[in-house]
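USER: I would love a firmer grasp of how sequence relates to backbone shape in proteins. This is the protein in question:
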Amino acid sequence: MASRLPRPLISALACLIWACGAGQAPAAAQPRSAAPQALDPAPVLAAPRRPAAIGTKNVTRVRKLWEVAAGGSGRAVAMSRALGRVAFSSGSPVQLYDFYTGKAAGSINTCPDVIRGGLAYAKGKLLVVCESGVRLYEGTKRSQAKVDANSARITAAAFVWPWLALGHHDGVLRIYGLDGSPTREIPVPGPPIDVKSLALTPDGSRIAVSWIQGSIWWWDVAQPQTAHKLVRRENESDSVAFSGDGKLFAEEGRTFFTTVWDFSAAPSERAEVRNGSWVKRILFSRDSNWLFRGGSDGLEIAQIGGPQRVALDTRGAVEDVATDEFGAALAAVDRDGRLTMWTVK
């Protein structure tokens, strides 16, 4: 009969069998030539979240982000989330503020006669439109380039990159291509007269104009000799605007009302939205369901074809309103020199 193994040796063998089979082998037991395990790839950082545009889903959550007493009587405002800047004008210089905090970020000495709505950011550039001319500034730098515009006094402007539409005192609308494309000229019917406000569709294919007689006209830019009369109002329309898809058009020439027109076919009235005595700036929300308006009642968001209105600030008469690249923030300037920033919270 075979002799029985000592109990200590049996216990040692059992531990070795368990380690090699049911458990994990010690690191020292692995062959030195074994290939190392492949590492997981480095995590890909997600791009910054696109901010939600102000619209039907969040309009009641728009809140003030900051406010500064910029001074003077506000004429124009523009903002760029990409550059982190808000530009404000009450003359010269144009003052710059941090997009997120409202802290002062310098100034740009430019022409003293910046027109209402004469500031715009696009493609990392700041456009400044004055009665006496146009200047283009690179990003956050102070370097500038003068746009070769007609010398006639400028009374109104509309800007959709790369097209800058200007109303001149000589009775001609001119659309300048800031990318080097040729200038297009559109003669306004009748004697030379000051243009009150201009609007371009985002693709630059259509332009609308309001002037001091209360008439509103529009053109297909490719057919500058064919003018289309939309309506004649009892008042001058200080603000006209196209929606982002170019299918809706808003004007405020009727007393106490902003009229929204449907341009998807032959122009027809779509809705009327009540307002105060006057409106200086109208913008559409990205979903085309709301109007951002600045005027005698202050700053508000008004539903198109519905009863809802969100009064954001009623302390002063607002001269200009701007949105960021995503339609996710609002900036407003009033006649008391207040500059306010609003966003969804």
Q: What stands out?
A: The chain has one domain: 59-344. The mean pLDDT is 86. The CA atoms of residues 152 and 168 lie 6 Å apart.
